[in-house]
């Protein structure tokens, strides 16, 4: 029969659970108030309530189990954020760099131990313990700081992955170091089995998991989806663990597999609350291990051991990362991230104890010393992490990075390779934003060159066939070499404010006529950049606001031309409307139509009751609703009749009271259990007559006071195609259409995925377009950035 507690009785484990959770919550609050990194607080909480502190927790087995769950969930979420594609890009770092780091650390520590009279078996064992870093702490901190996908973050995660793999071999070698017989055949079979199971999990999971998650998500059950995600995490970890592989590595592999699904973000949001809870438990459990009495009595010895461990790991990690071609600053920062001893070392230490092995060959001193140094190194990691970037910056200034920057003479020679470029675009840097920009430039035919100081970025760009100059793009001779004075534009797409400011200042002094556009995080940075000489500084926080108010105003029936005019007014004003000193003045003034408050746009989704039904069949009159218009595939049908049949993907403008719309919600709710996702775009119409009339000329009456200096390019034109010319050729879709008033080219707007109207302007220099959407007669000049 089930275990039942008597009234008033408290289960023994509940005291420890309450102590852990309460201590973690209290510490998190205090840490937030005093600006302390929570991980350090959790470690201190473990020391406080542990056996050497208040003694609230004396049996840590339950806590160990919860901590293991925390590590699994943490590595699972890191895997989701990392993705297999990113893993493949750093495979050389994983296997070559990771192998060097583990091997060099083990040999160096073993050598030091031998020099102090430790036997060779415990010396190698101690090297194993020190070689491992904390996957849980490093990945947690990288995620919190948003640095997982940076060069340093990927380098650290890559080495940690190899360390997790190395644990397999270390666990297999520990019995041999303890004197037990382990043959080479045993090692080979174990390693082969581990590799086979990892490959099996990845192959099978990539084929099975995406359709499984798709099916589960369509049930629209949060409970079912969460349980499925947890089952994937723990099930994969268990399967990998059967081969003797670290179950934490199994959880990471599960996250990588889920990252390939389009539901990866959904999975991450569902699992995150559990991951936070159990991860806190892990860090508290580490604090439980520290013996305060030993620490106080042997403080000098502990600090000395800590210093040796840090110096050894800094040196070996730096050498390993440099050996795979990473820049010295990145290698130094990665080394600082991995300077601690990791949680898997505790597991390895327990395995060694079972066969008579102890750190430094002494169970009385070596064991407590190892635990004390490890816990303190973990506690110092969150404190030291913010200095990784500063150390890298200082080293970069001293060494001018790992890539030898061209001298002025070399830059002059390199200039010959770019002498054929005129009216080109210079892309400064090769980060994530620059890669996306370059992809667009390649497709649009705009001539461009990339300047970057990153060895990996330069190598990647060169392998893609791009024209690349390696060097610091904030240096005058580098910009001269890439032809800045002949260039039409200089673009600095990756928003590092300090670096961007230097580039803009140097470039503006060198070339007063080149247009300079740069991206920065905030409005304050944008203002400083314009003062430094940028023609346009794009503040990412502002553009997000623009996107939001664009959608809001459209829902309230503000004309698209008026919205566009407001956006351009704000941009031309360098975002002054959002300055704190003028926030009491409305940034935008719109005259809203009276009926905009009684209308609402609803998208018909796949599986909704309204999909496939005629308006008459929906009996909208009885629901006190009427349809004003329906937008479908770019066409607008105004006041459709009762025979009009709705289909998935239609945007329907309803008129009616808010309560009437609420009551009609059952018509638009997905009823077959599937997730309410938008359907895939339907195929392009086979009858092009459904689109633009190519026999009717397009005319524009421009406002002579608009400030456009290119009115001589405005002509009556006949559209060349019945839709976006490039989209029709490729079978793509568009949102709105624009016609070039110089040649009649029809292209899609900037709200469309391909932005072919703008690309046509960049390719041909034809500056003026006109909207050919129903009811719209406005034009736009790309050169002067004014509405006509």
TrEMBL record:
Record domain RCK C-terminal: where: 587-670
One MF annotation (Gene Ontology) recorded for this entry: zinc ion binding
Topology term for the membrane: Multi-pass membrane protein
The RCK N-terminal domain, residue ranges: 422-538
Residue span, UBP-type domain: 706-788
GO terms (BP aspect): potassium ion transport; proton transmembrane transport
Entry's transmembrane regions: 6-29, 36-56, 62-82, 94-117, 123-143, 155-178, 184-204, 224-254, 274-294, 301-321
Stored InterPro entries: Cation/H_exchanger_TM (IPR006153), Na+/solute_symporter_sf (IPR038770), NAD(P)-bd_dom_sf (IPR036291), RCK_C (IPR006037), RCK_C_sf (IPR036721), RCK_N (IPR003148), Znf_RING/FYVE/PHD (IPR013083), Znf_UBP (IPR001607)
Location in the cell: Membrane
A family per Pfam: zf-UBP
Keyword tags: Ion transport, Membrane, Potassium, Potassium transport, Transmembrane, Transmembrane helix, Transport
Family to which the UniProt record says this protein belongs: Belongs to the monovalent cation:proton antiporter 2 (CPA2) transporter (TC 2.A.37) family.
Protein name (Swiss-Prot/TrEMBL): Sodium:proton exchanger
The species this protein was found in: Rubrivirga marina
Lineage: Bacteria, Pseudomonadati, Rhodothermota, Rhodothermia, Rhodothermales
